[in-house]
Specification:
The chain is α+β, with helices and mostly antiparallel strands and about 600 residues long. It has a domain at about 370-400 and about 505-590. Helix content is about 15%, strand content about 35%. It contains 8 helices and 29 strands. The strands form 5 sheets. Strands 2, 3, 4, 5, 6, 7, 8, 12 and 15 form a 9-stranded mixed β-sheet that branches. The longest helix is centred in the N-terminal third of the chain and has 26 residues, at about 50-75. The protein is globular and about 75 Å long. The relative contact order is 0.12.
Amino acid sequence: MDVRLLFTSASVCLALLLSGCSPSDEKRQVSLDEKTAQFETSLNAIQDPQLKNAIAELGGSLLLLERAQLKLDTKPLQTEYSEDVLAVLKHYPTPQALVDTYINGLFVLHKDSSSDYLTDLQPVFPFNFNIPDTFLFPNGLEWQSVTLSDKRVIGFQPEWSETDPGIQLSPSSSNLTNPEDLTITYPFIDGLDVDNKQQPQPVSLQGKVEVVAPRRLYSFDLTKKDVGQTRSNDNLSVTLLKLEPNYAEIEFANSLPTAAEVSETPLNPLIVQARDSTGQFLSRSGSINETAAQIAFYQKQLARLQQEKTWSDSLEIQLEDDQRAFEKQQKRNYSKVYFNGPIETLEVSVLDFSSATVTRKDLNLPVRRFEQNTTDKTIQPLDLPVVVYDDQAPAWLKGATLDEEQLKKSVRISQSVDDTSAAQIEFDRPRSFNEEMLGSALKPVDGPVSFFTEDGRGKRDEPIELPLEAYQVDPLHRTITYDLNLFPETPAYAVGSMPMFLASIDKKTLDAKQLPEGLELKGNALVVDQKLFPADEWRFYAKDDSGNYLKEILAVSHNASAEGPALFGVHYFYGQPTRLESYQRTDLATVQYGFEVKLDKTELPNPVQ
């Protein structure tokens, strides 16, 4: 949840993913609700529409900021880990090298749609970010047109038009996981069957991209002893104002003016990361970027607006002048950053935009077609002129050595009793490499479970006799589903064991120049004979001479026929592999996870007589 309150744009950037508040904060919540109701009432009394909009935007932003602060302050302190958001930058000698990789590693995939009137295009970026911004540096990407196989050029339009009778190129409205996806829509003719393959196909996608690379990035490592101290490096400085268990307050400044090339570009130069005592990075729960002085200034502007009866040009000019004058006085920037877990150390990084390089490039990208499963015997090339590393691979591959005790400790139990005919207990294990290697031929075994009542002290009492149809154990999905309608008494405890699976995995390191039969490198593509190395049992990871794992672009399985067995698989990498790591599942064990679960309270809908 990142909040920025700027009256000139009246913008608040929020992701209100948190809910609830502790009893001690109920008064704050009630007060905020009352304040919101009073504000809405006062708005209804304003007649001038422009004045009403201005007050609604500024007052609404202040209320949203207060609500965000309350939710961040009352969120339970539960540890959640994240990745090092700067890891990708550490692989490149300069910020500009990262920019060049980002632009030159972009390509476009042709994707079939379920409709004969639609074809999807998926731009594939070399980096995947789950950090506050989608890319470390300011950037913009604008699609302009698509060229079809019949030479027609279809211009991009921001949304699909129901009245446009021709072929259209617009953003995809159905793919939330890939928001950059585009859709080509062919004209629909009622009563006429159309074969998508007979439609003119996309050949290339045109657009333009712009990315700003800062002069440099510098990181300050801070701990509790740095509170109140200012740390500097050349023109950059950082002051740690406060360090509490789950948040830090920071001021930062750049003594040099912002480069003219980006003076009008919204910039977010601060990246704050935290580690706990284990050394792992904590995930962020949000930030507030307004000081008390800034909030007081906006409240003063709101109060002035609320005294006005009508909107005027002179009022707008005066407000903007006041805004500029206030911002001119702000020599340092402020951020209060919250984390999901107890903070041990901080890494505060500042992007230096005192000089900047703006890279602009016109894009004319060929549309490539790679089906996940194909009967084509020809191996398509996909050799991109960039090297990208997979920083998540080392942590992911630790799952290869997962043992029974670690598995049991990782299990989390949750319950759902909303549907009394299908109440459920779920045994969740974190997604891991070991689980990926379990394969698809799992043979579930019985998982015994018994339900008990409770005595007057809330302790486990007598077992409840039940018909077999009253509950079902599903080891594959790690769930127990029970029908409370079939219970003669209210259950209070469930006791038993849930079968779980654990793979034994054998790891080997292979020299790319001496690969065994069934493995072959063709440039950046690893070709795997799936008769010798079945995909259900084997995984392969690639490294180059740096010792880092190369990121896999995509994988294709080449089959004998549409329904036939896989012949070979092809794995494409961003870079040239010089070493491979193979992971083979050699055994599969069943682990019995014993449990005693205190059931969430619920009343029997119709007690069984």
